[in-house]
Amino acid sequence: MEKILVIGAAGQIGSELTLALRKVYGDQNVFATDIKDAQSDIKKSGPFQLLDVMDDKRLIHFVIRYKITQIYLLAAVLSGNAERLPLQAWDINMRSLLNILDLAREVGIKKVFWPSSIAVFGLTTPKVDTPQLTIMEPNTVYGISKLAGERWCEYYSNKYKLDIRSIRYPGLISYKTEAGGGTTDYAVEIFEEAVETGKYECFLKPDTKLPMMFMPDAIRGTIELMEADSSKLSIRSSYNLSGISFDPKGLAEEIKKIIPDFEITYKPDFRQSIADSWPQSIDDSVARKDWNWKHEYDLEKMSKIMLRETKKKSGKK
Ligand code: AKB
Predict the structure, then answer these.
(1) Quick one: CATH architecture of 4-170+215-240?
(2) pLDDT per residue as tens digits for the range 123-162
(3) Closest ligand 1 atom, CA of 78?
(4) Model pTM score
(5) DSSP state of 36
(6) CB of 98 closer than 8 Å to CB of 152
(7) Which CATH fold topology does 172-212+243-280+297-314 show?
(8) What is the mean pLDDT of the chain?
(9) Ligand 1 mean position to 187 CA, how many Å?
Protein backbone atom coordinates (compact mmCIF):
# COMPACT_ATOMS: atom_id res chain seq x y z
CA MET A 1 0.00 0.00 0.00
CA GLU A 2 1.27 3.48 -0.89
CA LYS A 3 2.00 5.91 1.96
CA ILE A 4 2.34 9.41 0.60
CA LEU A 5 4.05 12.43 2.13
CA VAL A 6 3.01 15.86 0.83
CA ILE A 7 5.39 18.67 1.80
CA GLY A 8 3.85 22.12 1.38
CA ALA A 9 0.29 20.83 1.80
CA ALA A 10 -1.08 24.23 2.84
CA GLY A 11 0.11 26.00 -0.31
CA GLN A 12 -1.63 26.76 -3.60
CA ILE A 13 -0.97 23.35 -5.19
CA GLY A 14 -0.68 21.32 -1.99
CA SER A 15 -4.06 22.30 -0.57
CA GLU A 16 -5.81 20.84 -3.64
CA LEU A 17 -3.42 18.01 -4.49
CA THR A 18 -3.55 16.57 -0.96
CA LEU A 19 -7.35 16.18 -1.13
CA ALA A 20 -7.15 14.68 -4.64
CA LEU A 21 -4.47 12.20 -3.53
CA ARG A 22 -6.58 11.20 -0.52
CA LYS A 23 -9.44 10.33 -2.89
CA VAL A 24 -7.12 8.04 -4.88
CA TYR A 25 -4.99 6.46 -2.12
CA GLY A 26 -7.25 6.74 0.95
CA ASP A 27 -7.46 9.55 3.51
CA GLN A 28 -5.19 7.95 6.11
CA ASN A 29 -2.45 7.13 3.57
CA VAL A 30 -1.72 10.72 2.56
CA PHE A 31 0.32 12.61 5.19
CA ALA A 32 -0.01 16.37 4.78
CA THR A 33 2.80 18.55 6.17
CA ASP A 34 3.76 22.21 6.02
CA ILE A 35 5.64 24.82 8.03
CA LYS A 36 2.36 26.69 8.45
CA ASP A 37 -1.05 25.55 9.61
CA ALA A 38 -3.27 23.95 6.96
CA GLN A 39 -6.88 24.58 5.93
CA SER A 40 -9.52 22.76 7.98
CA ASP A 41 -10.48 20.32 5.19
CA ILE A 42 -6.86 19.10 5.04
CA LYS A 43 -6.72 18.65 8.82
CA LYS A 44 -10.15 17.04 9.08
CA SER A 45 -9.84 14.58 6.20
CA GLY A 46 -6.54 12.94 7.18
CA PRO A 47 -3.21 13.27 8.99
CA PHE A 48 -1.55 16.71 9.15
CA GLN A 49 1.66 17.72 10.93
CA LEU A 50 3.82 20.82 11.07
CA LEU A 51 7.13 19.88 9.46
CA ASP A 52 10.01 21.90 8.03
CA VAL A 53 11.57 20.35 4.92
CA MET A 54 14.87 22.01 5.86
CA ASP A 55 14.98 19.89 9.05
CA ASP A 56 16.49 16.79 7.49
CA LYS A 57 16.70 14.84 10.78
CA ARG A 58 12.99 15.20 11.58
CA LEU A 59 12.16 14.50 7.99
CA ILE A 60 13.95 11.17 7.92
CA HIS A 61 12.32 10.11 11.23
CA PHE A 62 8.93 11.01 9.81
CA VAL A 63 9.52 9.04 6.61
CA ILE A 64 10.71 5.94 8.48
CA ARG A 65 8.04 6.13 11.18
CA TYR A 66 5.14 6.36 8.72
CA LYS A 67 6.71 3.99 6.15
CA ILE A 68 6.44 6.62 3.40
CA THR A 69 6.69 5.25 -0.16
CA GLN A 70 6.12 8.42 -2.23
CA ILE A 71 7.02 12.08 -1.62
CA TYR A 72 5.53 15.20 -3.21
CA LEU A 73 7.81 18.17 -2.49
CA LEU A 74 5.74 21.30 -3.15
CA ALA A 75 7.43 23.82 -0.83
CA ALA A 76 9.19 26.60 -2.77
CA VAL A 77 9.86 30.34 -2.87
CA LEU A 78 8.21 31.63 -6.08
CA SER A 79 9.59 34.07 -8.66
CA GLY A 80 8.54 37.45 -7.23
CA ASN A 81 9.51 36.65 -3.65
CA ALA A 82 12.77 35.06 -4.79
CA GLU A 83 13.89 38.33 -6.44
CA ARG A 84 13.38 40.11 -3.12
CA LEU A 85 15.55 37.64 -1.17
CA PRO A 86 17.76 35.92 -3.77
CA LEU A 87 20.17 33.98 -1.54
CA GLN A 88 17.52 32.81 0.90
CA ALA A 89 15.32 31.69 -2.00
CA TRP A 90 18.21 29.80 -3.60
CA ASP A 91 19.01 28.14 -0.27
CA ILE A 92 15.40 27.11 0.44
CA ASN A 93 14.63 25.92 -3.10
CA MET A 94 17.84 23.94 -3.53
CA ARG A 95 18.37 22.57 -0.03
CA SER A 96 14.78 21.32 0.22
CA LEU A 97 15.13 19.41 -3.05
CA LEU A 98 18.55 17.96 -2.23
CA ASN A 99 17.30 16.92 1.24
CA ILE A 100 14.46 15.00 -0.37
CA LEU A 101 16.48 13.46 -3.21
CA ASP A 102 19.13 12.21 -0.83
CA LEU A 103 16.63 10.96 1.71
CA ALA A 104 14.72 9.18 -1.08
CA ARG A 105 17.92 7.47 -2.23
CA GLU A 106 18.91 6.49 1.32
CA VAL A 107 15.53 5.18 2.45
CA GLY A 108 14.46 3.71 -0.89
CA ILE A 109 11.42 5.91 -1.64
CA LYS A 110 9.54 4.51 -4.64
CA LYS A 111 8.59 7.79 -6.34
CA VAL A 112 9.27 11.51 -5.87
CA PHE A 113 7.32 14.40 -7.41
CA TRP A 114 8.95 17.82 -7.66
CA PRO A 115 7.46 20.84 -9.46
CA SER A 116 9.53 22.79 -11.94
CA SER A 117 8.23 25.85 -13.80
CA ILE A 118 8.17 27.77 -17.08
CA ALA A 119 10.67 29.99 -15.22
CA VAL A 120 13.45 27.61 -16.37
CA PHE A 121 13.28 29.41 -19.73
CA GLY A 122 14.85 32.80 -20.42
CA LEU A 123 15.19 35.63 -22.91
CA THR A 124 17.07 33.48 -25.45
CA THR A 125 14.42 30.72 -25.46
CA PRO A 126 11.94 30.64 -28.39
CA LYS A 127 8.86 32.37 -26.95
CA VAL A 128 6.08 30.74 -28.94
CA ASP A 129 5.39 27.02 -28.57
CA THR A 130 8.54 26.65 -26.50
CA PRO A 131 9.84 23.12 -27.14
CA GLN A 132 10.63 20.51 -24.48
CA LEU A 133 14.33 20.64 -25.34
CA THR A 134 15.56 24.14 -26.10
CA ILE A 135 17.88 26.97 -25.01
CA MET A 136 17.54 27.54 -21.27
CA GLU A 137 19.18 30.64 -19.83
CA PRO A 138 16.88 31.80 -16.99
CA ASN A 139 17.73 35.20 -15.51
CA THR A 140 15.70 35.01 -12.29
CA VAL A 141 16.77 33.36 -9.03
CA TYR A 142 13.67 31.21 -9.09
CA GLY A 143 14.32 30.13 -12.69
CA ILE A 144 17.97 29.36 -11.98
CA SER A 145 16.97 27.25 -8.95
CA LYS A 146 14.34 25.37 -10.97
CA LEU A 147 16.78 24.67 -13.82
CA ALA A 148 19.44 23.47 -11.37
CA GLY A 149 16.74 21.37 -9.67
CA GLU A 150 15.81 19.74 -12.97
CA ARG A 151 19.46 18.82 -13.53
CA TRP A 152 19.65 17.30 -10.03
CA CYS A 153 16.45 15.29 -10.62
CA GLU A 154 17.84 13.85 -13.84
CA TYR A 155 21.18 13.16 -12.14
CA TYR A 156 19.60 11.22 -9.26
CA SER A 157 17.38 9.39 -11.69
CA ASN A 158 20.33 8.29 -13.88
CA LYS A 159 22.88 7.70 -11.16
CA TYR A 160 20.75 6.16 -8.40
CA LYS A 161 17.76 4.91 -10.46
CA LEU A 162 15.41 7.03 -8.35
CA ASP A 163 11.96 7.37 -9.91
CA ILE A 164 11.56 11.18 -9.95
CA ARG A 165 8.79 12.84 -11.93
CA SER A 166 8.32 16.52 -12.58
CA ILE A 167 6.23 19.09 -14.46
CA ARG A 168 7.18 22.58 -15.62
CA TYR A 169 4.00 24.22 -14.34
CA PRO A 170 2.74 27.32 -16.11
CA GLY A 171 1.00 29.99 -13.98
CA LEU A 172 -1.63 28.16 -11.92
CA ILE A 173 -5.07 29.64 -11.43
CA SER A 174 -7.15 28.56 -8.46
CA TYR A 175 -9.72 29.93 -6.03
CA LYS A 176 -9.13 27.75 -2.97
CA THR A 177 -5.83 29.07 -1.64
CA GLU A 178 -4.04 32.31 -2.47
CA ALA A 179 -1.09 32.14 -4.81
CA GLY A 180 2.04 33.26 -2.99
CA GLY A 181 4.69 35.57 -4.39
CA GLY A 182 4.68 34.57 -8.07
CA THR A 183 4.63 36.61 -11.29
CA THR A 184 1.54 34.88 -12.64
CA ASP A 185 -0.40 35.68 -9.41
CA TYR A 186 -2.17 38.56 -11.16
CA ALA A 187 -4.38 35.96 -12.86
CA VAL A 188 -5.63 34.84 -9.42
CA GLU A 189 -5.82 38.28 -7.76
CA ILE A 190 -7.83 39.72 -10.66
CA PHE A 191 -10.78 37.42 -9.88
CA GLU A 192 -10.73 38.28 -6.17
CA GLU A 193 -10.65 42.01 -6.91
CA ALA A 194 -13.27 41.74 -9.68
CA VAL A 195 -15.66 40.18 -7.17
CA GLU A 196 -14.72 42.35 -4.16
CA THR A 197 -14.31 45.81 -5.73
CA GLY A 198 -15.04 45.54 -9.46
CA LYS A 199 -11.55 46.95 -10.18
CA TYR A 200 -8.02 45.65 -10.51
CA GLU A 201 -4.63 47.34 -10.86
CA CYS A 202 -2.44 44.90 -12.73
CA PHE A 203 1.32 44.71 -12.10
CA LEU A 204 1.96 43.50 -15.68
CA LYS A 205 1.38 45.33 -18.98
CA PRO A 206 -1.88 44.59 -20.90
CA ASP A 207 -0.21 42.54 -23.66
CA THR A 208 1.99 40.32 -21.44
CA LYS A 209 1.01 36.91 -22.73
CA LEU A 210 1.98 33.97 -20.49
CA PRO A 211 1.25 30.23 -20.31
CA MET A 212 -1.36 29.47 -17.62
CA MET A 213 -3.39 26.50 -16.40
CA PHE A 214 -6.53 26.02 -14.32
CA MET A 215 -5.77 24.09 -11.13
CA PRO A 216 -8.04 21.08 -11.83
CA ASP A 217 -5.98 20.40 -14.99
CA ALA A 218 -2.73 20.74 -13.05
CA ILE A 219 -3.90 18.37 -10.30
CA ARG A 220 -5.15 15.75 -12.75
CA GLY A 221 -1.95 16.07 -14.82
CA THR A 222 0.23 15.61 -11.74
CA ILE A 223 -1.57 12.45 -10.63
CA GLU A 224 -1.61 11.08 -14.20
CA LEU A 225 2.14 11.62 -14.51
CA MET A 226 2.76 9.93 -11.14
CA GLU A 227 0.63 6.96 -12.16
CA ALA A 228 2.11 6.62 -15.67
CA ASP A 229 4.11 3.54 -16.57
CA SER A 230 7.72 4.39 -15.75
CA SER A 231 9.03 2.78 -18.94
CA LYS A 232 6.99 5.27 -21.02
CA LEU A 233 8.62 8.35 -19.46
CA SER A 234 11.37 9.71 -21.69
CA ILE A 235 11.92 12.88 -19.62
CA ARG A 236 13.55 12.72 -16.18
CA SER A 237 14.26 16.42 -15.86
CA SER A 238 10.75 17.92 -16.13
CA TYR A 239 7.87 17.80 -18.63
CA ASN A 240 6.55 20.85 -20.52
CA LEU A 241 2.81 21.14 -19.88
CA SER A 242 0.47 23.51 -21.64
CA GLY A 243 -3.00 24.77 -20.76
CA ILE A 244 -4.19 28.24 -21.78
CA SER A 245 -2.14 31.25 -22.95
CA PHE A 246 -3.54 34.75 -22.44
CA ASP A 247 -2.57 38.29 -21.46
CA PRO A 248 -4.11 40.59 -18.77
CA LYS A 249 -6.16 42.45 -21.40
CA GLY A 250 -7.70 39.20 -22.73
CA LEU A 251 -8.46 37.98 -19.22
CA ALA A 252 -10.11 41.30 -18.32
CA GLU A 253 -12.30 41.04 -21.49
CA GLU A 254 -13.40 37.58 -20.38
CA ILE A 255 -14.28 38.86 -16.89
CA LYS A 256 -16.24 41.78 -18.43
CA LYS A 257 -18.50 39.26 -20.19
CA ILE A 258 -19.78 38.35 -16.70
CA ILE A 259 -19.10 41.59 -14.77
CA PRO A 260 -19.61 44.28 -17.47
CA ASP A 261 -18.52 47.17 -15.20
CA PHE A 262 -15.20 45.55 -14.30
CA GLU A 263 -12.30 47.99 -14.74
CA ILE A 264 -8.63 47.15 -15.14
CA THR A 265 -5.70 49.58 -14.92
CA TYR A 266 -2.01 48.84 -15.37
CA LYS A 267 0.97 49.71 -13.18
CA PRO A 268 3.84 47.39 -14.15
CA ASP A 269 6.40 46.72 -11.40
CA PHE A 270 9.60 44.60 -11.13
CA ARG A 271 7.64 41.48 -12.10
CA GLN A 272 7.23 42.82 -15.66
CA SER A 273 10.85 41.97 -16.52
CA ILE A 274 10.39 38.47 -15.04
CA ALA A 275 7.31 37.92 -17.21
CA ASP A 276 9.11 39.33 -20.28
CA SER A 277 11.78 36.65 -19.93
CA TRP A 278 9.25 33.79 -19.96
CA PRO A 279 7.57 32.03 -22.92
CA GLN A 280 4.16 33.00 -24.26
CA SER A 281 3.06 29.46 -25.06
CA ILE A 282 4.40 25.94 -24.49
CA ASP A 283 4.73 22.91 -26.74
CA ASP A 284 3.78 19.92 -24.60
CA SER A 285 3.78 17.28 -27.34
CA VAL A 286 6.27 15.08 -25.46
CA ALA A 287 3.95 14.85 -22.43
CA ARG A 288 1.03 14.15 -24.80
CA LYS A 289 2.96 11.35 -26.46
CA ASP A 290 4.56 9.79 -23.34
CA TRP A 291 1.61 9.75 -20.93
CA ASN A 292 -1.38 10.99 -22.93
CA TRP A 293 -1.57 14.41 -21.27
CA LYS A 294 -4.38 16.65 -22.51
CA HIS A 295 -5.67 19.87 -20.91
CA GLU A 296 -9.40 20.37 -20.50
CA TYR A 297 -10.06 23.98 -19.47
CA ASP A 298 -9.98 26.96 -21.85
CA LEU A 299 -10.09 30.65 -20.90
CA GLU A 300 -13.89 30.92 -20.98
CA LYS A 301 -14.60 27.78 -18.97
CA MET A 302 -11.93 28.61 -16.39
CA SER A 303 -13.07 32.24 -15.97
CA LYS A 304 -16.71 31.25 -15.43
CA ILE A 305 -15.78 28.78 -12.68
CA MET A 306 -13.29 31.18 -11.08
CA LEU A 307 -15.88 33.96 -10.84
CA ARG A 308 -18.61 31.63 -9.58
CA GLU A 309 -16.40 30.09 -6.89
CA THR A 310 -14.76 33.37 -5.86
CA LYS A 311 -18.23 34.89 -5.39
CA LYS A 312 -19.29 31.91 -3.27
CA LYS A 313 -16.15 32.15 -1.17
CA SER A 314 -16.62 35.87 -0.51
CA GLY A 315 -20.26 35.31 0.46
CA LYS A 316 -21.60 37.13 -2.63
CA LYS A 317 -24.10 35.29 -4.79
C1 AKB B 1 5.48 32.15 -10.53
O2 AKB B 1 4.86 33.05 -11.12
O3 AKB B 1 6.55 32.31 -9.92
C4 AKB B 1 4.94 30.74 -10.60
C5 AKB B 1 5.51 29.96 -11.74
C6 AKB B 1 5.15 30.29 -13.12
O7 AKB B 1 6.26 29.06 -11.51
N8 AKB B 1 3.51 30.77 -10.70
Answers:
(1) 3-Layer(aba) Sandwich (3.40)
(2) 999 999 999 999 999 999 999 999 999 999 999 999 999 9
(3) 3
(4) 0.97
(5) S
(6) yes
(7) UDP-galactose 4-epimerase; domain 1 (3.90.25)
(8) 97
(9) 11
